[in-house]
């Protein structure tokens, strides 16, 4: 479990403890990719060189995905070997693996990756916008202008460039099950000082993800956003360098997010479109609440302006001046 409720947690988000009775900090039997049949699926994971993206690639391999493209700026040769080993460990056929030298902020690099995927796989079924950066901590007035904007370049413009380039390939993919998953963050909900670029960019990425759904749901693409849990990866300085106040909080494993995404995208779940999910929530419990979530239009980014019946216009009080 994430830290017991009440643990001082400056990044506690809405619904962390309230949406499902059970919450997780590591993978669990119900989402074990060994139970999935991802054969025939083609997936692209951006930012797969380490951390959460790497775990996602291994989860898709264990789930039997046929074609796995992974993009990052670093060397991916070890990952390629690890993907083959992960598939083998579950008795799967060896997937086709496409390591891509990809900088998501460079439109030419993104275009080259799209061309390579088209040439090698001919289509894409699942895009995971996972690559992201945190930026430097600091008050807005003290921040370096370029460094602040660079966060948006990766987290927003990068996700936009990749999604834009991959949409034609997704439209050639499995028409019954096309996904764009964007890895946002609990930070989208937070107003903690000294991390403004990251918090705004992750909120923007969630809204971007909603708009992809609005524009492409009719073409069979389901786009949703996730918080992967609080994972002690390099983005936060690694496990060894966690500051004291982060130690009880950054306790999720990358496998939790990896297995959760493979599980969620293994079949059509169009109702997830436009929503934000925290992957520490128990997914079977969450899926059972589909009708309630849809009926109440939950987990979407919107301004809830409704006042109670004793307030404002509902009480006959005019707010106009005319
Ligand atoms: N860890 C957490 O607790 C946490 C919580 C909420 C959300 N997230 C989100 O989860 C995602 C993965 O983060 P992580 O925790 O796994 O961090 P990480 O270990 O630092 O991994 C970040 C990945 O993004 C890639 N990347 C960064 N800039 C890139 C660029 N311009 N082009 C291509 N790839 C780029 C990196 O690859 P190269 O450097 O090799 O290019 C790396 O593979 C991020 O979007 C992050 O915001 C993480």
From TrEMBL:
The keyword Oxidoreductase applies. The keyword Cytoplasm does not apply. It comes from the Eukaryota. CDD domains: SDR_c. InterPro entries: NAD(P)-bd_dom_sf, SDR_fam. Keywords: NADP, Oxidoreductase. Belongs to the short-chain dehydrogenases/reductases (SDR) family. This is Uncharacterized protein. It comes from Aspergillus lucknowensis.
């Amino acid at each position: 479990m994430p830290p017991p409720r009440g643990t001082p947690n400056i990044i506690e988000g809405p619904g962390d403890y309230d949406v499902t009775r059970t919450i997780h900090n590591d993978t669990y039997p119900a989402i074990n990719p060994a139970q999935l049949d991802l054969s025939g699926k083609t997936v692209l994971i951006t930012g797969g060189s380490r951390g959460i993206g790497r775990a996602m690639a291994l989860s898709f391999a264990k789930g039997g995905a046929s074609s796995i493209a992974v993009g990052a700026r670093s060397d991916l040769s070890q990952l390629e070997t690890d993907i083959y080993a992960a598939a083998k460990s579950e008795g799967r056929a060896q997937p086709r693996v496409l390591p891509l030298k990809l900088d998501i902020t460079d439109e030419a690099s993104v275009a080259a990756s799209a061309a390579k995927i088209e040439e090698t796989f001919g289509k894409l079924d699942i895009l995971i916008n996972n690559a992201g950066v945190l930026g430097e901590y600091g008050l807005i007035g003290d921040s370096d202008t370029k460094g602040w904007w660079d966060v948006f370049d990766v987290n927003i413009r990068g996700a936009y460039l990749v999604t834009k380039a991959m949409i034609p390939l997704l439209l050639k993919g499995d028409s019954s099950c096309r996904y764009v998953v964007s890895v946002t963050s609990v930070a989208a909900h937070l107003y903690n000082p000294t991390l403004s670029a990251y918090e705004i960019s992750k909120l923007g990425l969630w809204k971007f993800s909603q708009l992809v759904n609005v524009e492409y749901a009719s073409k069979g693409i389901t786009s949703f956003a996730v918080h992967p849990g609080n994972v002690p990866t390099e983005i936060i300085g690694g496990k060894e360098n966690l500051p004291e106040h982060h130690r009880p909080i950054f306790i999720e494993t990358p496998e939790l997010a990896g297995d959760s995404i493979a599980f969620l995208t293994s079949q059509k779940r169009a109702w997830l479109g436009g929503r934000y999910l925290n992957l520490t929530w128990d997914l079977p419990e969450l899926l059972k609440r589909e009708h309630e979530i849809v009926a109440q239009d939950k987990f979407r980014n919107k301004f809830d302006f409704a006042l109670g019946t004793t307030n404002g216009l509902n009480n006959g009080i005019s707010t106009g001046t005319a």
